[in-house]
Amino acid sequence: MGEPFENSEAWRTARTLTNEIYALCRSEPLSKDFGLRDQLQRAAVSVMNNIAEGWESVHVAEKRQAYNIARRSCGEVRSMSYVFVDNKFIAAPEQDKLKARCIQAGKLISGLIRSLRDRT
Question: Is residue 31 part of a domain?
């Protein structure tokens, strides 16, 4: 068996993103917007969990599918960051940090997807 998913830079970055999202969701006014907060937390956890699911799968097609879901969830978090800044839940510099973390995680997930290209 190979390295555990916890050693993956992609998973560690997604974990950091998830922790940053949860911290953001604990502060007002986002903490009071239950729908947006819950959707955001689910999307962030989806990034982390789908990397783990893909990593643990023995089938390449399942790996690819899980990594693609993780990448899409990353985009969802990044997209929601615009709702936060537009509605004054966070300031622009905080959004920039969040977007950068999403982009970083997305690139790492793309690397996992690329690593599957020559496998069947």
Answer: yes
User: Which tokens go with 74?
Assistant: 């990353």
What is the CATH classification number for the domain harbouring 26?
1.20.1440.60
Q: Model's pTM, two decimal places?
A: 0.92
Range of 20's domain? 5-114
Q: State how many domains the chain has.
A: 1
How many Å apart are CA 21 and CA 27, to the nearest integer? 10
The reported pLDDT for the residue numbered 47 is 98
Q: Read off the pLDDT of residues 46-67 as tens digits, 9 standing for 90 and up.
A: 999 999 999 999 999 999 999 9
| C-alpha angle 34-37-42 in degrees, rounded to nearest 5 | 120
